Amino acid sequence: MGRIASTLPPAAPSGRDGGLLLDPATDLWADWGLLGVPDPDRATTTRQGLLFRDFISSAFPSFQFHRLSELLIDLLQQVADGQLTRLIVCCPPRHGKSQLVSRLFPAYWVSRHPELFCAIASYSGELAYAHSREARHYYRITGHALSKDSAAVGNWLTPQRGGCIAAGVRGPFTGKGYNLGIIDDPYKGPEDAKSALQRERLIDWLKSVWFTRAEPGLTAKGALLPAAQVVVQTRWDHHDMTAWLLEQEAEENPEHWTVLNLPAIAEPEAISMQIPHTCKKVADWRQPGEPLCPERVPLAVLQRIRTRLGSYWWNALYQQRPSPAEGLLFRKDWIQPPLPIAPGQPRRYAPLVLSCDLSFKDGKENDACGFSLLGLLEPKRHPAAEARRQGLALAANAAVTQGSPTGVNATHPPAGAPDPWAELQIETLWAHRQRLDLPGVIKFLLASVGSLERQGLRPNAVLIEDAANGPAVCQLLKRQVPGLIAIPPKGSKASRAHAVAPLVEAGQVRFARNADSLIEELLAFSPRGGVDDQVDAFCQGVLWIEAQFWRGRGYGSSPVPMVFSR
How buried is 454 (Cβ within 10 angstroms: 0-12 exposed, 13-18 middle, 19+ buried)? Predict the structure, then answer.
């Protein structure tokens, strides 16, 4: 533990923050701040051999150690020792992660490396300053000196000219370097995390400012300490900063993050967050169903929180998987492949529908366009009904139909015969999402319809929502695309999704392999918002088919065989 224990001052009275002249915790030379001549003995009673856990005991005697804190302390010790340079910590709210990572650890790290800089960033400058203020307090209360010319909470220095800087994300870090960078809660709340614009701005800041400020540093002994980065986050959205960092591992130069991802209640490994093979996942020591930190939040309290929040926010904030493994509104086990068709019998659709959700306003923050190709599978009909549908006249004395049970009249199906339309199947054949401007939308639609026609197909309807940019497309394409229909929007996107969900659950809407991108959106779809362009196009098409043809029990024109390939 070194000599630090012998130099610690008596515990300060309650409410005291230190910083007074002649205070032995801060005015280390008892010179009223005038002479600035360090006491050689006091100046050397600092860091060598002191572990983070011992520092915590000295700085915060009432700190509660438990299994979670011990695990996190061990990882942070590796960061301070230069053995670990990339760490992501995802834990539920109110489990003490910020106290350890963003307050106690910066104080310890600066005491170990007073010639180097630590940077703290959060969603706001106020929160970052609050973390820095606490770190400065723990640094001073353990007997370490501050530079007399810079002791502000947002930028405090040591006599060795290292120290700590703090700012909000997208804040003023330009011109300042750091050897340890800590980002704690980069999003203010769900609105920020689910806003594509806010997420993109954060990523731009990471690329242009945060990553460029990291630099290795020389310790007092002349050793080179590599730059380290620690990210602390409660998950809000499946496209948040943690997700983006892990997605970057597929690029040429992965960062090899160590990931501590712990849900509030332990889950089977099969449904926990998956990480890239370039990263190291810290193992969860618990069995499924065990709480993370019963000393702070018992299981009974977690169960009450779960009931109050609902599955969406529980899975995101407390289980650290914003896109639940089983889906949210649309469940994974509802997603079924198309029904098999006997060899030699091509699929016949009545009708075939191309549904479009369009947006082409200027600006990267605007939604992309979503497209979905849907077909209502033509059911097997009773022969007499099929003949009547085709306008054929049957002989009055036609007694039975070949292959029908004896005595069954071919002209009129028997009473109680199954309705061929009772078990209809809508097949989602293809889906696509792309950001397009107005000329791009026109070109894409014409190319898609042309591709279908070259296969001997023609959509019976091309659905364009009659809102926002839809009327402009309809006006430009009404003479070039047969079957173009403007659909007045009814209700919200969420209400339309809720109307379609029972059909998917019942297995009456199925999905081909070319609709994988739509399936991904369906499983992540939240009524509260998010990426939903393909989902909206899909729901628009399903509801239109149901209203126009399913409930109407049939379609007037002859169906066509479907041989669609992307």
Answer: exposed
The residue type at 284 = D
Question: Do residues 411 and 521 share a domain?
Answer: no
Domain span including residue 128: 65-318
471 and 391 co-located in one domain:
no
Query: For position 507, what pLDDT does the model report?
Result: 87
* 496-497-499-505 Cα dihedral, nearest 10 degrees: 160
Q: What's the DSSP call for residue 178?
A: B
Domain harbouring 495, CATH code: 3.30.420.240
Query: What's the rounded Cα separation, in Å, for the pair 296 and 212?
Result: 38
Closest CA to 545 of 341, 339, 378, 359: 378
Q: Give me the residues of the chain with pLDDT under 70, please.
A: 1-49, 174, 323-327, 360-366, 379-423, 468-470, 528-530, 550-566
pLDDT at 89: 97
Instruction: Give DSSP secondary structure letters for 219-288.
Output: -TTSPEEPPEEEEEE----TTSHHHHHHHGGGSSS----EEEE--SB---GGGSPP--TTSEEPPP-SPT
pTM for this model (two decimals): 0.57
The verdict on 397 and 520 lying in the same domain is: no
Read off the tokens for 150.
């810079």
